């Protein structure tokens, strides 16, 4: 029964294209179904920040039970430096509904590889980078065996460095993740959450995310998911431009200037994303 609760559009979307990544606290099983029926492209059951230390074991059992009875989701596991990491992975390696894990506090490439080795072969590991050391090692992390995608833990990074939430203050870190992802041949990185933001404020935050070259965003509220999906998708104007250029190209139009092939590639990418996100009739 639980499988049918998952948003069918989101369930069919490859995680490499996921825009909204909704963190659902594993402190209560009541959080799971609302997350899975939301517009989130990917849902992450959170056993790390959302769960206090005395409740970690119960949260782990709760997640494994959900992933063994029809639900499917990603799971944020505790840092490799904690006493909970090994038990988290041992339990999740037996959960049939596990889509992948998000590794908290990733700072070194071998942390991703060690995590992947404890899971079923092929289970993707999303490296959540939350510190200055992690940012400086981002290129190596992106190239490590097992790394699926990078994500930016903005709150902890700001605590570690003293940076403000001004986009300029975080521009280096975001750029580092974008460049590292490209070097590692990964999908675009996932930006951190804009805590409490909805509506126009969240759309403005998504503009920053997209302008930096990031293609996903973490969130904590189910109501934020649809806004993030819209904010990180091709706009109507972009889709119209791409459709016209591709139509002219198919009809044999040839443009001799040096910018044509890059524009054609961009149009093809926009068209492909519009197909994947089901935007043609939106």
UniProtKB/TrEMBL annotation:
Domain HpcH/HpaI aldolase/citrate lyase intervals: 27-185
Alphabetically ordered keywords of this record: Lyase, Magnesium, Metal-binding
InterPro entries noted in UniProt: Aldolase/citrate-lyase_domain, Citrate_lyase_beta/mcl1/mcl2, Pyrv/PenolPyrv_kinase-like_dom, Pyrv_kinase-like_dom_sf
Residues binding substrate, per UniProt: 76, 130
Cofactors, names only: Mg(2+)
Pfam families according to UniProt: HpcH_HpaI
Keyword presence, Metal-binding: yes
GO terms assigned for molecular function: lyase activity; magnesium ion binding
Organism: Arthrobacter echini
Protein name (Swiss-Prot/TrEMBL): CoA ester lyase
Binding site for Mg(2+): 130, 156
UniProt record, GO biological process: oxaloacetate metabolic process
Gene3D superfamilies, A to Z: Phosphoenolpyruvate-binding domains
């Amino acid at each position: 029964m639980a499988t049918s609760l998952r948003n069918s559009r989101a369930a069919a979307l490859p995680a490499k294209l996921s825009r909204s990544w909704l963190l659902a606290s594993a402190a209560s099983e009541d959080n799971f179904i609302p997350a899975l029926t939301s517009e989130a492209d990917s849902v992450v059951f959170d056993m790390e920040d959302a769960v206090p230390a005395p409740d970690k074991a119960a949260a782990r059992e709760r997640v494994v039970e959900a992933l063994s009875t029809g639900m499917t989701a990603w799971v944020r596991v505790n840092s490799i430096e904690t006493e909970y990491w090994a038990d988290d992975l041992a339990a999740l390696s037996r959960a049939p509904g596990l889509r992948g894990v998000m590794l908290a506090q990733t700072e070194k490439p071998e942390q991703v590889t060690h995590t992947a080795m404890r899971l079923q072969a092929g289970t993707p590991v999303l490296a959540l980078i939350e510190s200055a050391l992690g940012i400086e090692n981002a290129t190596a992390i992106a190239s490590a065996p097992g790394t699926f995608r990078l994500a930016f833990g903005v709150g902890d990074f700001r605590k570690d460095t003293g940076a403000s939430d001004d986009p300029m203050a975080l521009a280096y870190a975001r750029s580092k993740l974008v460049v590292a992802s490209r070097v590692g041949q990964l999908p675009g990185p996932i930006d951190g959450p804009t805590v409490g933001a909805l509506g126009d404020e969240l759309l403005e935050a998504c503009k920053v995310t997209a302008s930096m070259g990031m293609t996903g965003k973490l969130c904590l509220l189910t109501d934020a998911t649809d806004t993030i999906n819209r904010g990180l998708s091709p706009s109507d104007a972009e889709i119209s431009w791409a459709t016209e250029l591709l139509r002219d190209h198919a009809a044999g139009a040839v443009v001799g200037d040096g910018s044509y092939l890059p524009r054609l590639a961009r149009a093809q990418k926009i068209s492909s994303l519009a197909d994947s996100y089901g935007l043609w009739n939106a």
